[in-house]
Amino acid sequence: MRKTVQLAPGLFIGGDHFVVMAGPCAVETQELLLAAALAVAAAGAVVLRGGAFKPRTSPKSFQGLGEAGLLLLEEASARTGLPVVTEVMDPRDVDLVSKHAAMLQVGSRNMQNFALLREVGRQSKPVLLKRGAAATLDELLHAADYILQEGNENVVLCERGVRGFDPSTRYVLDLAAVPALRQRTGLPIIVDPSHGTGDASLVPAMAKAAVAAGADGLLIEVHAAPELALCDGKQALRPAEFLQLMAELRRLVPLCGKRWARSLATSQTASSAAEPSGGAIPRSSTIGASDGRASDGRASDNRAFDNEVIAP
Ligand code: PEP
Ligand code: MN
Fold first, then answer.
1. For 60-73, what is each residue's pLDDT tens digit?
2. Does some domain include residue 311?
3. Which of 192, 220, 234, 306 to mutate to test ligand 1, by most ligand atoms within 8 A of the CB atom?
4. How many angstroms is it from 54 CA to the middle of ligand 2?
Protein backbone atom coordinates (compact mmCIF):
# COMPACT_ATOMS: atom_id res chain seq x y z
CA MET A 1 0.00 0.00 0.00
CA ARG A 2 1.40 3.37 -1.03
CA LYS A 3 1.61 5.75 1.90
CA THR A 4 0.84 9.44 1.60
CA VAL A 5 2.62 11.77 4.02
CA GLN A 6 1.17 15.18 4.85
CA LEU A 7 3.88 17.84 4.89
CA ALA A 8 1.63 20.83 5.60
CA PRO A 9 -2.08 21.59 5.35
CA GLY A 10 -3.14 20.55 1.85
CA LEU A 11 0.36 19.41 0.89
CA PHE A 12 1.05 15.70 0.47
CA ILE A 13 3.87 13.54 -0.78
CA GLY A 14 3.49 9.96 -1.98
CA GLY A 15 0.84 8.28 -4.09
CA ASP A 16 0.59 10.33 -7.25
CA HIS A 17 1.72 13.61 -5.63
CA PHE A 18 5.05 15.02 -6.77
CA VAL A 19 6.95 17.43 -4.52
CA VAL A 20 10.03 19.56 -5.12
CA MET A 21 11.97 20.65 -2.03
CA ALA A 22 14.65 23.24 -2.71
CA GLY A 23 16.88 25.80 -1.08
CA PRO A 24 20.45 26.31 0.02
CA CYS A 25 22.63 23.66 1.58
CA ALA A 26 23.04 25.79 4.69
CA VAL A 27 21.39 28.83 6.19
CA GLU A 28 24.10 31.49 5.98
CA THR A 29 22.62 34.98 6.08
CA GLN A 30 19.10 36.33 6.18
CA GLU A 31 19.55 37.99 2.78
CA LEU A 32 20.89 34.91 1.00
CA LEU A 33 18.29 32.62 2.53
CA LEU A 34 15.40 34.90 1.63
CA ALA A 35 16.67 35.37 -1.90
CA ALA A 36 16.86 31.60 -2.38
CA ALA A 37 13.52 31.01 -0.68
CA LEU A 38 11.69 33.58 -2.81
CA ALA A 39 13.30 32.21 -5.96
CA VAL A 40 12.44 28.56 -5.32
CA ALA A 41 8.90 29.47 -4.28
CA ALA A 42 8.40 31.51 -7.42
CA ALA A 43 9.72 28.65 -9.54
CA GLY A 44 7.24 26.20 -8.01
CA ALA A 45 9.06 24.41 -5.19
CA VAL A 46 6.64 23.61 -2.38
CA VAL A 47 9.07 22.94 0.47
CA LEU A 48 12.06 25.07 1.50
CA ARG A 49 15.24 23.25 2.49
CA GLY A 50 18.22 24.65 4.38
CA GLY A 51 20.50 23.40 7.12
CA ALA A 52 20.93 25.16 10.46
CA PHE A 53 22.87 22.24 11.92
CA LYS A 54 25.38 21.05 9.34
CA PRO A 55 27.17 17.70 9.42
CA ARG A 56 30.65 18.60 8.17
CA THR A 57 33.59 16.30 7.70
CA SER A 58 35.99 18.77 9.27
CA PRO A 59 35.20 20.48 12.59
CA LYS A 60 36.89 23.55 11.12
CA SER A 61 34.27 23.88 8.40
CA PHE A 62 31.20 26.07 8.81
CA GLN A 63 28.92 24.18 11.17
CA GLY A 64 25.70 26.09 10.59
CA LEU A 65 24.02 28.86 12.56
CA GLY A 66 22.17 26.53 14.92
CA GLU A 67 19.11 28.03 16.59
CA ALA A 68 19.64 31.39 14.87
CA GLY A 69 19.41 29.55 11.57
CA LEU A 70 16.15 27.95 12.59
CA LEU A 71 14.70 31.41 13.27
CA LEU A 72 15.80 32.59 9.84
CA LEU A 73 14.17 29.52 8.28
CA GLU A 74 10.97 30.29 10.16
CA GLU A 75 11.02 33.84 8.83
CA ALA A 76 11.66 32.64 5.26
CA SER A 77 8.82 30.16 5.64
CA ALA A 78 6.47 32.94 6.76
CA ARG A 79 7.56 35.16 3.86
CA THR A 80 7.10 32.48 1.19
CA GLY A 81 4.43 30.24 2.66
CA LEU A 82 6.72 27.24 2.13
CA PRO A 83 7.04 24.68 4.92
CA VAL A 84 10.64 23.99 5.93
CA VAL A 85 12.66 20.79 6.02
CA THR A 86 15.87 21.02 8.01
CA GLU A 87 18.38 18.58 9.45
CA VAL A 88 18.61 17.50 13.06
CA MET A 89 21.82 15.76 14.10
CA ASP A 90 21.51 15.39 17.86
CA PRO A 91 18.69 13.69 19.76
CA ARG A 92 18.86 16.58 22.25
CA ASP A 93 17.92 19.04 19.48
CA VAL A 94 14.85 17.20 18.22
CA ASP A 95 12.38 19.22 20.31
CA LEU A 96 13.97 22.50 19.27
CA VAL A 97 14.07 21.68 15.56
CA SER A 98 10.54 20.29 15.53
CA LYS A 99 9.28 23.59 17.00
CA HIS A 100 10.64 25.50 14.03
CA ALA A 101 10.36 23.11 11.07
CA ALA A 102 7.57 21.28 9.29
CA MET A 103 9.76 18.28 8.52
CA LEU A 104 12.91 16.90 10.18
CA GLN A 105 15.77 15.62 8.08
CA VAL A 106 18.00 12.79 9.26
CA GLY A 107 21.09 13.09 7.10
CA SER A 108 23.05 10.29 5.49
CA ARG A 109 25.75 10.43 8.14
CA ASN A 110 23.15 9.77 10.81
CA MET A 111 21.10 7.12 9.05
CA GLN A 112 22.14 4.60 11.68
CA ASN A 113 22.18 6.94 14.65
CA PHE A 114 19.62 4.81 16.44
CA ALA A 115 19.10 7.18 19.36
CA LEU A 116 18.30 9.96 16.89
CA LEU A 117 16.00 7.73 14.84
CA ARG A 118 14.07 6.79 17.99
CA GLU A 119 13.81 10.41 19.08
CA VAL A 120 12.44 11.65 15.74
CA GLY A 121 10.07 8.69 15.89
CA ARG A 122 8.66 9.94 19.17
CA GLN A 123 7.59 13.31 17.76
CA SER A 124 4.92 13.86 15.17
CA LYS A 125 6.55 15.95 12.41
CA PRO A 126 7.30 14.03 9.19
CA VAL A 127 10.86 12.77 8.83
CA LEU A 128 13.04 12.83 5.71
CA LEU A 129 15.45 9.91 6.08
CA LYS A 130 18.47 10.02 3.79
CA ARG A 131 20.28 6.89 2.73
CA GLY A 132 23.75 6.48 4.22
CA ALA A 133 26.55 6.77 1.66
CA ALA A 134 27.52 3.16 2.31
CA ALA A 135 24.14 1.78 3.34
CA THR A 136 22.27 -1.01 1.62
CA LEU A 137 18.57 -0.63 0.92
CA ASP A 138 17.95 -3.20 3.66
CA GLU A 139 19.77 -0.99 6.14
CA LEU A 140 17.81 2.07 4.97
CA LEU A 141 14.52 0.25 5.45
CA HIS A 142 15.56 -0.99 8.90
CA ALA A 143 16.54 2.58 9.84
CA ALA A 144 13.06 3.70 8.77
CA ASP A 145 11.63 0.93 10.97
CA TYR A 146 13.25 2.52 14.03
CA ILE A 147 11.22 5.67 13.38
CA LEU A 148 8.01 3.85 12.49
CA GLN A 149 8.29 1.63 15.55
CA GLU A 150 8.18 4.66 17.85
CA GLY A 151 4.82 5.66 16.38
CA ASN A 152 5.76 8.18 13.70
CA GLU A 153 4.48 6.79 10.41
CA ASN A 154 5.34 9.87 8.40
CA VAL A 155 8.66 8.86 6.94
CA VAL A 156 9.94 9.83 3.49
CA LEU A 157 13.03 8.01 2.13
CA CYS A 158 15.71 9.83 0.15
CA GLU A 159 18.27 8.38 -2.26
CA ARG A 160 21.28 10.70 -2.31
CA GLY A 161 24.06 8.60 -3.78
CA VAL A 162 26.46 6.03 -2.46
CA ARG A 163 30.23 6.06 -2.30
CA GLY A 164 31.89 4.95 -5.53
CA PHE A 165 35.45 4.82 -6.82
CA ASP A 166 35.33 7.53 -9.48
CA PRO A 167 35.96 11.12 -8.36
CA SER A 168 34.19 12.39 -11.52
CA THR A 169 31.07 12.62 -9.41
CA ARG A 170 30.80 13.19 -5.67
CA TYR A 171 28.75 10.03 -5.13
CA VAL A 172 27.08 7.46 -7.39
CA LEU A 173 23.40 8.33 -7.56
CA ASP A 174 21.64 4.97 -7.35
CA LEU A 175 18.45 5.55 -9.29
CA ALA A 176 17.65 1.83 -9.41
CA ALA A 177 17.06 2.26 -5.68
CA VAL A 178 13.79 4.03 -6.50
CA PRO A 179 12.00 1.11 -8.21
CA ALA A 180 13.81 -1.38 -5.95
CA LEU A 181 12.56 0.37 -2.81
CA ARG A 182 9.14 0.71 -4.39
CA GLN A 183 8.86 -3.08 -4.50
CA ARG A 184 9.53 -3.27 -0.78
CA THR A 185 7.88 -0.28 0.87
CA GLY A 186 4.88 1.98 0.55
CA LEU A 187 6.82 4.96 1.95
CA PRO A 188 7.36 7.92 -0.40
CA ILE A 189 10.79 7.98 -2.06
CA ILE A 190 12.55 11.14 -3.17
CA VAL A 191 15.90 11.73 -4.86
CA ASP A 192 18.61 14.28 -4.12
CA PRO A 193 20.59 14.83 -7.34
CA SER A 194 22.61 17.64 -5.75
CA HIS A 195 24.56 15.55 -3.24
CA GLY A 196 24.28 12.60 -5.60
CA THR A 197 26.43 14.31 -8.23
CA GLY A 198 28.15 17.16 -6.39
CA ASP A 199 28.07 19.18 -9.60
CA ALA A 200 25.41 21.73 -10.57
CA SER A 201 25.87 20.97 -14.27
CA LEU A 202 24.81 17.35 -13.70
CA VAL A 203 21.81 18.08 -11.49
CA PRO A 204 19.13 18.77 -14.16
CA ALA A 205 19.77 15.53 -16.08
CA MET A 206 19.74 13.42 -12.93
CA ALA A 207 16.66 15.21 -11.58
CA LYS A 208 14.77 14.31 -14.74
CA ALA A 209 16.12 10.75 -14.64
CA ALA A 210 14.84 10.47 -11.06
CA VAL A 211 11.36 11.47 -12.18
CA ALA A 212 11.50 8.85 -14.93
CA ALA A 213 12.60 6.27 -12.34
CA GLY A 214 9.41 6.96 -10.40
CA ALA A 215 10.55 9.27 -7.60
CA ASP A 216 7.85 11.00 -5.56
CA GLY A 217 9.88 14.16 -5.38
CA LEU A 218 13.24 15.87 -5.52
CA LEU A 219 15.51 17.58 -3.01
CA ILE A 220 17.58 20.19 -4.82
CA GLU A 221 20.15 22.66 -3.58
CA VAL A 222 19.61 26.19 -4.90
CA HIS A 223 21.73 29.14 -3.82
CA ALA A 224 21.19 32.79 -4.72
CA ALA A 225 24.92 33.24 -5.25
CA PRO A 226 26.77 29.88 -5.24
CA GLU A 227 30.14 31.64 -5.26
CA LEU A 228 29.33 32.94 -1.78
CA ALA A 229 28.20 29.59 -0.38
CA LEU A 230 29.96 28.33 2.73
CA CYS A 231 28.90 24.82 1.91
CA ASP A 232 28.32 22.85 -1.31
CA GLY A 233 28.39 25.87 -3.67
CA LYS A 234 29.66 23.71 -6.52
CA GLN A 235 26.50 21.66 -6.61
CA ALA A 236 24.00 24.49 -6.06
CA LEU A 237 21.79 25.59 -8.94
CA ARG A 238 21.40 29.30 -9.49
CA PRO A 239 17.80 30.55 -9.36
CA ALA A 240 17.65 30.91 -13.16
CA GLU A 241 18.96 27.37 -13.63
CA PHE A 242 16.39 26.05 -11.16
CA LEU A 243 13.63 27.93 -12.95
CA GLN A 244 14.66 26.32 -16.23
CA LEU A 245 14.73 22.86 -14.65
CA MET A 246 11.27 23.40 -13.14
CA ALA A 247 9.93 24.35 -16.56
CA GLU A 248 11.21 21.03 -17.92
CA LEU A 249 9.88 19.09 -14.93
CA ARG A 250 6.51 20.73 -15.37
CA ARG A 251 6.20 18.87 -18.69
CA LEU A 252 7.85 15.64 -17.59
CA VAL A 253 6.12 14.96 -14.26
CA PRO A 254 2.60 14.35 -15.69
CA LEU A 255 4.09 12.05 -18.36
CA CYS A 256 5.46 9.91 -15.53
CA GLY A 257 2.06 9.52 -13.92
CA LYS A 258 2.37 12.15 -11.21
CA ARG A 259 0.70 15.45 -10.51
CA TRP A 260 2.21 18.45 -8.78
CA ALA A 261 1.43 18.39 -5.08
CA ARG A 262 0.34 22.01 -5.40
CA SER A 263 -0.22 24.00 -8.52
CA LEU A 264 3.00 25.64 -9.62
CA ALA A 265 3.25 29.31 -8.86
CA THR A 266 3.45 31.50 -11.91
CA SER A 267 6.94 32.66 -12.72
CA GLN A 268 5.73 36.26 -12.25
CA THR A 269 7.92 36.86 -9.24
CA ALA A 270 10.68 34.51 -10.31
CA SER A 271 12.80 37.04 -12.12
CA SER A 272 12.66 39.61 -9.34
CA ALA A 273 13.52 36.90 -6.84
CA ALA A 274 16.19 35.39 -9.03
CA GLU A 275 19.16 37.14 -7.50
CA PRO A 276 19.76 38.65 -4.07
CA SER A 277 19.34 42.41 -3.81
CA GLY A 278 17.78 42.48 -7.26
CA GLY A 279 20.85 40.96 -8.82
CA ALA A 280 23.35 43.11 -6.96
CA ILE A 281 25.84 40.26 -6.70
CA PRO A 282 27.37 39.78 -10.15
CA ARG A 283 27.90 36.34 -11.59
CA SER A 284 31.64 36.88 -11.51
CA SER A 285 31.64 38.12 -7.93
CA THR A 286 34.72 37.19 -5.99
CA ILE A 287 33.30 38.29 -2.64
CA GLY A 288 34.12 35.57 -0.17
CA ALA A 289 35.89 33.57 -2.84
CA SER A 290 39.44 32.41 -2.49
CA ASP A 291 41.59 30.02 -4.46
CA GLY A 292 40.11 26.94 -6.08
CA ARG A 293 37.08 28.51 -7.74
CA ALA A 294 35.66 27.31 -11.02
CA SER A 295 35.35 29.84 -13.82
CA ASP A 296 31.67 30.38 -12.97
CA GLY A 297 32.62 31.25 -9.41
CA ARG A 298 31.53 27.97 -7.81
CA ALA A 299 34.02 26.39 -5.48
CA SER A 300 35.91 23.94 -7.67
CA ASP A 301 37.93 22.25 -4.98
CA ASN A 302 36.04 19.04 -4.41
CA ARG A 303 38.40 18.10 -1.55
CA ALA A 304 37.56 14.63 -0.33
CA PHE A 305 34.25 15.10 -2.18
CA ASP A 306 32.95 17.10 0.74
CA ASN A 307 32.66 20.40 -1.06
CA GLU A 308 33.76 22.02 2.16
CA VAL A 309 35.22 25.44 2.58
CA ILE A 310 37.73 24.81 5.37
CA ALA A 311 38.03 27.72 7.77
CA PRO A 312 41.56 29.05 8.18
C1 PEP B 1 21.90 17.84 3.23
O2 PEP B 1 20.92 17.49 2.56
O3 PEP B 1 22.00 18.96 3.72
C4 PEP B 1 22.99 16.88 3.48
C5 PEP B 1 23.97 17.15 4.35
O6 PEP B 1 22.89 15.78 2.74
P7 PEP B 1 23.45 14.31 3.04
O8 PEP B 1 23.07 13.98 4.47
O9 PEP B 1 22.75 13.48 2.03
O10 PEP B 1 24.93 14.37 2.85
MN1 MN C 1 24.64 20.20 0.98
1. 999 999 999 999 99
2. no
3. 192
4. 8
